[in-house]
Description:
This protein is mainly alpha-helical. It has a domain at 2-53 and 97-211. It contains eleven helices and no strands. The protein is elongated.
Amino acid sequence: MILASVLTPLEDLMKSILNFFHGNVGLPWSWSIVALTVLVRIVLVPLTVRQIHSMQSLQAHGPEMKAIQQKYKGDRAKLNEELMKFYRENHINPAASCLPLLAQFPVFIALYLTLRHAKEVNGSFLHIVPDISAKGTAHWSGYVLLAIYAGSQVASTYFMGATMDKTQRNLMMVLPLLFITVVSRFPTGLILYWMTTNLWTVGQGLVTRRLVPRTPAGKGVTAPIGPKRSSRTPPRESGNGAAAVDAEKPTAVPSRQPRRVRRKKGSRR
Length: 269
């Protein structure tokens, strides 16, 4: 009862947004869910930008973080302490990559409650899904949406998980296939929402790769500012000025003795 009372405002807000797209804009209920998904992702653009910057920072400082992990791999507490210190010094927020996903969780719950309680929120999708409020396996078209959901989830993990460990990344790409049995019990409208947000993430990853230059690994450390030294550049002046004096002294060139020519016997002068 307490949980239901807490989630009731979210459910009412979700119902109001869907009613706006359906009643005022004139969209079917299924396309109202798609419009709701696009609206949510537009609102989450600032968090998405922070997510992209966090991923680039993690990628740029990857070799340094691996060196810290190798150095303190036997001491878990010291490793966490050094990593937190490294994050603070380089202004890295590792949790920023999860913010868009966490922010969508209340929307997901509110949409689930709306589809479960509001009987008027129903209808078909693209004339192949007969009822978006029914379970995903109630019709053969639900399996098509489940397949698109799994493929879009794998693709979104591929584009947005570039900084993950290889094992973790492979696990995140396999988990959607395991979650199909759970997702299939949800209403088709929820699958439609998650499929749409995954396709948005795929498009976002394509745009990011094209517009934002990829930061090479190991380039996160800024090189010291100053002129490049060459073989002709004199050494810097030390505290006692001896280096500068030595640099100003001309290098002594060893003198060559004149070559003596031996004359042959019997030759005239």
